[in-house]
Design a protein that fits this description.
Distance between the termini: 40 Å
CATH superfamily of the largest domain: Probable inorganic polyphosphate/atp-NAD kinase, domain 2
Number of strands: 17
Number of domains: 2
CATH architecture of the largest domain: Sandwich
Radius of gyration: 20 Å
Helix content: 10-25%
Oligomer: single chain
């Protein structure tokens, strides 16, 4: 493993210092280190010390490191544009479900990574397609979720839900979340959705503050197409994918959500279980 990309959230405290130290450490291990141009400039590295991460170089990487928080990890997924490169998330933030390696673990774990002693999870992603008047307006990809939500001053959203062209229900709610198992510990969890084991091949639908108490979260196989049709007449509505990108929606728009063809490759310590992460991140009680 010799060609490593480094994505850095420079807004995080000490991110610049940590990134620079990490870059030199990797170079001492005979690794070629690649950065987005703006990061390379901020780090004040010469081209002999770090290289610009072009689209051509992106496809040749062996590993990409996301240095920041879960938002940085999701930005890295978007940055890869569907290229399946293992991503190692290093947490400089607070919770960090995706960036599970702490600052203190960086170098001991990277020593193991360079020796091939690591595990890779293959996480499913979703594809969200916006249809308007029979035309495809946009396609987005997300690791966590696709969210239909209203603006700050808008009323409840009226929308219909279909699964594989079969009508399910009409909702009146603040919005709706369609999430992957990876996204089940993100926004969906805050909205009352269940935690889904990350290797399951499913998608989950979680309404946001529905007007009816009987509208509960539902889980479907990932091979089933989920369609959300906007009934509301007003236009202060949005589709947001992974909090990274999205589109303003109009009445009668349809959002078709399916499993994406590509997956995200998540690098983590081989003996760290999903339940250990839940205990640590959610502060669950330990076994006595």
């Amino acid at each position: 493993m010799k060609r490593i990309g480094l994505i850095v959230n420079l807004k995080k405290e000490n991110a610049l210092v940590i990134a620079r130290e990490l870059a030199f450490w990797l170079m001492e291990k005979d690794c070629q280190v690649f950065f987005p141009k703006e990061v390379l400039n901020q780090l004040n590295l010469t081209l002999s010390q770090g290289q610009i991460l072009s689209e051509e170089e992106l496809e040749r990487l062996n590993l990409i490191i996301a240095l920041g928080g879960d938002g940085t990890f999701l930005h890295t997924v978007k940055f890869l544009k569907g290229i399946e490169i293992p991503i190692l998330g290093i947490n400089l933030g607070r919770l960090g479900f995706l960036t599970e390696v702490t600052k203190e673990e960086i170098y001991p774990f990277l020593e193991k990574v360079l020796k091939g002693e690591y595990a890779v999870d293959y996480r499913i992603m979703l594809e969200a397609k916006v249809m308007r008047d029979g035309e495809n307006m946009a396609i987005f990809y997300a690791l966590n979720d696709a969210v239909v939500s209203k603006g700050s001053l808008a009323r409840l959203i009226n929308f219909e839900l279909f699964i594989e062209d079969e009508y399910v229900a009409t909702y009146l709610a603040d919005g709706i979340i369609v999430s992957t198992p990876t996204g089940s510990t993100a926004y969906s969890l805050s909205a009352g959705g269940p935690i889904i084991y990350p290797s399951l091949d499913v998608l989950m639908v979680t309404p946001i503050c529905p007007h009816s108490f009987t509208h509960r979260p539902m889980v479907f196989t990932a091979d089933q197409a989920i369609l959300i049709k906007i009934i509301s007449k007003y236009e202060d509505l949005n589709l947001t994918c992974d909090g990274q990108e999205g589109l303003s929606l109009k009445s009668q728009d349809s959002i078709v959500i399916t499993k994406a063809p590509q997956k995200t490759l998540l690098v983590h310590p081989p003996k760290r279980s999903f339940f250990e992460i839940l205990r640590t991140k959610l502060d669950w009680g330990s076994k006595k």
